[in-house]
Design a protein that fits this description.
Layout (H helix, E strand, L loop, with lengths): L1 H44 L7 H53 L4 H36 L7 H6 L9 H19 L1
Length: 187
């Protein structure tokens, strides 16, 4: 059983690494949205009397196209993040299932049952951390996409995600993986 758990932990580690790269792509796509919106706002703030009408229209259309493409790209990146998140959750479910099945394979031992309980609690804790950060990133993305549109007060005040700080990968490698590996030796 230990080798099965080790393989599942390695698969989760690889999936977390991919997830982290997808988060970076979402943040980068949101920065492109910011740049495009900034260009549009800057154009609107200029005195249009200084420019020929056709030139302004072409520039305006070009900036709107840039914004639309940036938004489309951001939704593609969020879709990748969705798939990556589901891959981790499925892997966590398989790990929990493997561990739970192993608990019924041998006669009950209180220390082993406690070890399995702690193992499953760690798996569930990591799932919560992952989903909390995922929700923050989705809210951050929504805020960026609709920043030029009047938003409900709740959404405007609730998004506090710092795009430079994502902690799932770090927590997985520094806290959860080590503890789960240690516990898997006792299962």
């Amino acid at each position: 059983m230990q080798s099965v758990v080790e393989k599942q932990l390695a698969n989760i580690s690889a999936a977390v690494h991919d997830w982290d790269a997808n988060v970076e792509r979402v943040v980068k796509a949101c920065k492109l949205i910011d740049e495009a919106q900034s260009g549009l706002y800057h154009l609107m703030s200029l005195s249009l009397a200084d420019f020929a009408g056709t030139c302004v229209d072409q520039l305006n259309n070009s900036l709107k196209l840039k914004l639309g493409l940036a938004q489309e790209r951001s939704f593609d990146e969020v879709n990748r993040l969705n798939r990556s998140t589901m891959k981790i959750i499925i892997s966590l479910n398989q790990l929990a299932s493997t561990t739970s099945t192993a608990s019924t394979a041998e006669p009950p031992d209180s220390s082993r049952i406690n070890c399995i309980s702690v193992f499953l609690a760690l798996v569930e804790s990591f799932r919560s951390v992952l989903l909390n950060e995922y929700d923050l990133i989705r809210a951050y993305h929504t805020n960026k996409v609709y920043s030029g549109v009047e938003q409900p007060l709740v959404l405007r005040k609730s998004v506090t995600h710092d795009p430079q700080t994502h902690f799932v990968s770090k927590l997985w490698s520094e806290r959860y993986l080590d503890q789960l590996n240690m516990l898997s030796l006792l299962l």
